[in-house]
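Changelog-adjacent note: as of this version, every example in the card shows the full chain rather than a window. The one below runs 390 residues end to end.
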Amino acid sequence: MFYLLLPFLLVAFSSLVKRTIKSNRQQATDFGIIITAYKNVHIAEGLVQSILKQSYANHHIYLVADQCDVTNFGLQNEQLTLLKPDPPLNLKVKSIIYAVEQFVRAHDYIIVFDADNLAHPNFLAEINAYVNAGYSAIQGQRTAKNLDTLMAGADALGEFYKNYVDRYAPYLLGSSAVISGSGMAIARDLYLAYLNSPEIEKGKELGKKMLQEDKILQNFILSSRQRIVYAWDAVLYDEKVSTPNAVETQRSRWLYSYFQNFPNALALIAKGLLGWNWNQLLFGIITAGLPMFILLGLSGGAFLVGIFIAPWMALLILMAMFVFVSNIFLTLYLSKAPAPVWNAAKGAPYFVFKQLTALLKMGNPQKNFKPTEHQHHVTIDELIKPSDKV
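Full-length structure tokens:
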């Protein structure tokens, strides 16, 4: 029942905190931007263009085209380095390490994007404000690039919810935001220490069985007693899964990684309790929480059993489930989610069903874990309104 009520408590208490950024200096941070493309370099063209159009210009882009045909890749710029590793790397973290080894200079901060992302014109400027406030780990706000199908809308609905409950609210309450997997900026020395950590060395040998690199990164940062702050206004766009099969493929990886990471979450809770560290404690509690559909499924089962054994307990569980579901829609309202996301709620049962089938496939990662296919070739100018660029 605790995890049914925790999200609402996070939202409620965080609403009492005023978001402020106090810049200690006015530094023109030098960003090294890494883009990892796998078997499809052309999906990254829109992202590269969006970065080159940033209102903040002190950066260099490293596009790693792993197993990609770059023959017809037409973008050239003095701020862009196109890398084609040979032999192929076949692992995102290896692509990141390869890019770091090719840096043209020692950048102050490293930002990692997925190839299907797009960056709002003010993304880097917003990130730089947090850098000037003294933060060493900053997560941007990832939102939907496409809402063309019910599945994409349902995927986006989950991200709006997670952005608020797992990222924004914990940050406001003095803890850390869960890393999204892209759009995060990390101080160079901290990021290089992470890349040289034993967990990454072990992961490179495990291949598809490795713990997702974003989870290794957040665990490393929290274990170093650092915070991951959440830059609400540093917006990047991410392609949402559009088909049931894509949902199944993506969620099988995510579920596998959740169960892999569960012991690490418990370890952070223990560190937080023993070391009186609120940042580690709350972050560990949040990352230990069950995936939403499993939590609601188990709660529903407990409610049915409770009807016959302890009706009063069944009533409490039902009330807690109502609070949990209501809080999902509250976060959509607070986040000003667009209409297609609200409408996608009707597709939630089928979306949940595909996650259940994903559970059955996570036992064989080498066979079932495939990269998500990206098909939405959109430019930043096509995606946002002129008024949003200001």
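Structural remarks: DSSP finds 16 helices and eight strands in the chain.
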